[in-house]
Specification:
This protein has about 400 residues and is mainly α. The protein contains 17 helices and no strands.
Length: about 400
């Protein structure tokens, strides 16, 4: 049966938007916490590498959860992992607020938060694809824009709360916000998995040798090396590299979020019109150019704000386009298992992108004797190159889908 392309599907989109706002919005605030940790030496003995791994760990743990989440959805109901995710997410924020040692922060803001993120986001991610066909990329874009809305709101409120009430209360209030929003969202979400006879196998191993899907998960690998690095490094670049205040760094994070809110639904509409793979490849390439041409030479707040807008609009295209593109390649029935493989693949770059950025920064400072903004050039170049490689890899999926190299075919 064809998806209804509307009706209750719009309720699913609205709920998915809110779920994305709370999960990925909260995750994006790590950039705010990171600035605070580095500037205040809050955790004795902790280094920049420790903090970098915590940010990457929360995302990678969420991806690694995918096969187990699929198993729970198949064995019981997709709402079982959603409820578990709610408990993990709220608990992680409460205990992160009580943490006084770096190992505790690893377990709370890293591992437990990552489990909450994965158990909530992974079962919700395929739902918009089940309810929409012709407007599938638009629905996915609105879903993904929720992360920008959450990041915009939570980055500003988190910064204010840290300044006025302290670090602990920033975590506590974010936990309360998560609880209030997610309870009705989980109640309203509905799946069409029985109608479309989708498979909720943890992993269908035959997909590992699927020639078209190979290009998709390679795209996911390289694009997230660039995206996670840019997302977590922007605020630090502004404060440590250019000497801006922590408030200015937070405002740049908020500007990037505005770009996500505006750009992701527009990108979804354009993908539905001109081809999902076509547009995603172009946007990925633009994301790389924005790093190499704009961010690389940004020394003023205005130019850096412009980069934040461009990167916000285009850099996170994977999170809105991966569902529709994977559906194009493997179909709706195999989507759940294909996404499990995709999430496991992107767990690696999500874990190591920010540590790579920190290592490159330290190498530039200690061996190349660079300082200020110049010390960040290697990290920025690495991000830009990762995006551009990702865009070229995705063209392989276009070639597989249309069986030729014709450029102007809608794919």
């Amino acid at each position: 049966m064809e998806p209804p392309d509307g009706g209750y599907g719009w309720v699913i989109v609205a709920c998915s938007f809110m779920l994305s706002a709370v999960t990925w919005g909260n995750n994006t605030t790590f950039g705010i916490f990171l600035c605070f940790y580095r500037q205040n030496a809050f955790f004795p003995g902790a280094t920049d590498i420790h903090f970098a791994f915590i940010g990457g760990l929360s995302v990678s743990i969420s991806m690694i959860c995918a096969p187990f989440v699929n198993y729970l959805s198949k064995r019981f109901n997709f709402k079982v992992p959603l409820v578990m995710g709610l408990l993990f997410l709220v608990t992680s924020q409460i205990f992160a607020g009580l943490s006084t040692r770096i190992w505790a922060l690893f377990l709370t803001q890293g591992v437990l938060f990552g489990m909450g993120l994965g158990f909530l986001w992974i079962p919700a991610f395929p739902l918009t694809n089940q309810w929409f066909s012709k407007r599938r990329a638009l629905a996915g874009g609105v879903f993904a824009a929720g992360s920008g809305a959450g990041a915009l709101t939570l980055s500003l409120t988190t910064q204010v709360i840290i300044q006025r009430l302290g670090l602990k209360w920033a975590f506590f209030i974010n936990a309360l916000i998560s609880l209030v929003i997610l309870v009705p969202v989980i109640f309203l979400l509905k799946s069409r998995v029985r109608i479309i006879q989708a498979k909720f196998e943890p992993i269908q191993y035959q997909l590992l040798s699927h020639p078209g899907f190979l290009y998709v998960w390679l795209w996911g690998f390289f694009i997230n090396l660039g995206y996670i690095l840019a997302l977590y490094t922007l605020a630090t670049y502004s404060t440590s590299g250019l000497g801006f205040t922590q408030a200015q760094g937070s405002s740049l994070q908020a500007i990037l979020a505005v770009g996500q809110i505006v750009g992701r639904p527009i990108a979804g509409t354009v993908m539905d019109r001109f081809g999902r793979i076509n547009v995603a490849a172009i946007i990925t390439f633009i994301s790389g150019l924005s790093c190499l041409v704009i961010w690389m030479f940004s020394t003023t707040y205005g130019l850096l704000a412009f980069f934040a807008v461009v990167q916000g609009m285009f850099g996170g295209i994977f999170w809105g386009a991966s569902g529709p593109i994977t559906t194009e390649i493997v179909g709706l029935t195999g989507l759940g298992s294909a996404l499990s493989i995709l999430w496991l693949t992107v767990a690696i770059p999500c874990t190591f992108a920010e540590p790579i950025a920190v290592w490159l920064l330290h190498y530039s400072q200690n061996h190349l004797h660079r300082s200020g903004a110049d010390a960040f050039r290697s990290s920025i170049g690495f991000a830009g190159a990762s995006f551009i490689v990702a865009s070229l890899v995705l063209l392989g999926a276009k070639r597989w889908k249309q069986k030729n190299w014709k450029v102007f075919v809608k794919t």
